[in-house]
Specification:
Elements (H helix, E strand, L loop, with lengths): L8 E6 L2 H9 L8 E4 L7 E4 L1 H4 L9 H7 L4 E3 L3 H18 L3 E5 L2 E5 L9 H16 L3 E6 L2 H11 L4 E3 L5 H5 L12 H9 L5 H6 L2 H8 L1 H10 L15 E12 L2 H21 L2 E12 L4 E11 L2 H15 L6 E9 L2 E2 L11 H17 L26 H7 L2
Parallel strand pairs: 2-4, 7-8
Antiparallel strand pairs: 1-6, 1-7, 2-3, 5-6, 9-12, 10-11, 10-12, 10-13
Helix pairs in contact: 4-5, 10-11, 12-13
Length: 407
């Protein structure tokens, strides 16, 4: 292989991010078992320190159970605004230092350093970037550096806590071989159990198996599992841009000044977009509302928020922005809602604000929408909007598709 064609992909992950943020605010938490999440017995664990993990605690566990496993653990409610602010600070540091990076979640980044070895040395550049993040934020961060995303992500996991790991070109398979198959990205609990039932517990075993066997057992996913086990991954680093967004608009057949109707429609829009985020495993960091009056004058207001995909965080922001905008008392021709600054992530970002009951309610509502349609269940205040059709060609598609099409 031509050395000039070798890729260098860096994966960086902030260690126990929520806990590390809390320790910045209160140094007494350093070295102690810490649980971030709902403080009541009905709450759930959003994140936990390495000290707490030694007791078998993990994220999404009911707080009641976690405190039984580790009675001495310190429980902190958490502040999503603080975490979002620090995440953006780290993003800005990375943005200043490298040409291409992909932000895949609030605390995780891929960086393409291909070609940089000719000038600086990729290991040296990655090390200096890690040290800069630590120095300027006080947050611990680990990285893995290799030829592709899969191996780099696994290397980061092996480097933790607060360390770094480099896998040289050609050494991908030997590096992966002794590790558990659970370390392979995309191998969840169900797939791991299936592999164990087949007697496959180490990646080395997967490497020795014919790919046809995995295709027979896992279908098309068998090819991906085999590729990752053998250190094969050609997926590119997708340049990060805050312009990624999902949106929906309503142009009225007749211009209106019906304040309650406008509010109802905006609630329905925001609720539907929040569901689209959760379905696409996305979080938004910016909410915008648009109003176009009958004279075609158009006004937009936007607001940065803590990364979220929860109705009870997004809807109040939408309504507050609308209240700021709707001041002309003129006939309204169009209204719209846009969610931008999207990153990958699940609803767990809100676990420290939500009780277990709230999370299960969202899950039940989303399941009904998956089965019976996006608007099969909605808030009473948004019922007037039930007749809204899809007003742009992308409305209702997963956010990841929208993000790619609108770049």
């Amino acid at each position: 292989m031509n050395p000039n064609n070798l890729r260098h992909i860096l994966h960086m992950d902030l260690d126990t991010f929520f806990v590390s943020c809390e320790r910045l605010l209160d140094s007494r938490l350093v070295g102690r078992p810490v649980l971030v999440g709902g403080t009541s017995d009905r709450g759930v664990v959003a994140a936990c320190s390495y000290e707490a993990r030694q007791f078998g605690i993990h994220s999404a566990m009911p707080m009641r159970m976690a405190k039984q496993l580790c009675p001495e653990a310190i429980v902190v409610r958490g502040n999503s605004g603080t975490y979002s602010k620090l995440s953006r600070t780290v993003t800005e540091i990375i943005k200043e230092e490298v040409p291409v990076f992909e932000k895949t979640s609030i605390d995780e980044f891929y960086i393409d350093l291909t070609g940089m070895d000719r000038f600086f040395g990729c290991q040296k550049l990655a090390t200096e970037l890690r040290q800069k993040v630590i120095k300027e934020t006080g947050l611990p961060i680990s990285f893995g550096l290799s030829e592709n995303k899969t191996v780099s992500k696994i290397a980061t996991g092996q480097a933790k806590p607060n360390n770094q790991r480099y896998v040289d070109h050609g050494q991908e398979k030997p590096f992966l071989a002794p590790l558990s198959v659970a370390k392979i990205p995309m191998v969840g609990k169900v797939t791991y159990k299936q592999l164990c039932d087949l007697g496959i517990k180490r990646i080395a075993t997967l490497q020795e198996m014919p790919v046809e066997f995995l295709l027979n057992v896992f279908g098309k996913n068998g090819q991906q599992i085999w590729n990752k086990a053998n250190g094969i991954d050609k997926s590119p680093v997708v340049p990060y841009t805050e312009r990624q967004s999902i949106s929906t608009e309503r142009t009225f057949d007749r211009d209106t000044t019906d304040h309650q109707k406008l509010r109802s429609i905006l609630v329905a829009m925001a609720e539907n977009l929040a569901f689209q985020l959760r379905r696409g495993h996305k979080l938004t960091g910016c909410v915008a509302v648009k109003i176009r009056y009958s004279d075609f004058q158009t006004y937009t207001q936007q607001q940065k928020i803590a990364y979220s995909a929860a109705d009870h965080n997004i809807i109040p922001t939408v309504m507050a922005l609308y209240d700021k905008l709707y001041q002309r008392r003129m006939l309204v021709r169009l209204i719209g809602v846009r969610l931008s600054d999207l990153v990958s992530g699940g609803h767990q970002i809100d676990l420290f604000n939500d009780a277990e009951k709230t999370i299960k309610l969202y899950q039940a509502m989303d399941l009904m929408r998956e089965r019976y349609g996006d608007r099969s269940i909605m808030r009473a205040v948004g019922m007037e909007a039930r007749t809204i059709g899809r007003t742009n060609p992308f409305d209702g598609e997963p956010p990841s598709l929208l993000a790619n099409r609108r770049q």
